[in-house]
Amino acid sequence: MNETELIRNLDQIKIELDGTGCKLIAVSKTKPVEILTAAYQAGIRIFGENKVQEMVQKHEVLPKDIEWHMIGHLQTNKVKLIAPFVSLIHSVDSIKLLKEINKRAAQNNRIIDCLFQIHIAEEETKFGLNEAELFELIESDEFNSMENIRMKGLMGMATNTTDYEQVRKEFTALKDLFNKTGSKYVADNLDFTELSMGMSNDYRIALKEGSTMIRVGSLIFGERNYNN
Prior knowledge:
It is a single chain. By secondary structure, the chain is an alpha/beta fold. The protein has one domain: Alanine racemase (TIM Barrel), CATH 3.20.20. The protein has ten helices and eight strands. An eight-stranded parallel beta sheet has the order 7-6-5-4-3-2-1-8. The longest helix is centred in the last third of the chain and has 21 residues. The model has no long low-confidence stretch (mean pLDDT 94).
């Protein structure tokens, strides 16, 4: 991937996003700092990582106006490493994790923005809450006592399939749950404005279904290098 290809890829996606209000999360996992620097120089300011240590290392050397989004499964014992700087955690799937984020945010005198991860795909390997678990969490006394987190909305990953009608249905269901939750609950730590859905293979469907954030990696940076 050279800089010319990178800029061409970014320009194409920016054209598709123009006027939609949807944010582009450049999924930079496994990509070296040099490539992220080229993307930054091309105007990208939001990067998504799925491994804590990699995010920390990149945050230390790249410009400080970058928003770092944690998009992968987050272990509670790693929260303390990103709490000082992370902009948004997409992958909250338990009260245990949320308690740890709230604790570490307080230690850093921050309010950390988060999304509830919802299980919408058929694969059993995907993490996430179902509707009943989401509502139970929001209604809990523990959640309502948390002052250092702000839940901005929902995130979900559709089934990895070429059946685009199935993907559309999954995104539609997530948007319906987003609307339902936002209208059903009011709390100081709830601000339902973001719906993170859509990746390189299905972001066009997600845009039509109301996504406010798409997480795109391979269409920007090329295929991942898992040997890094």
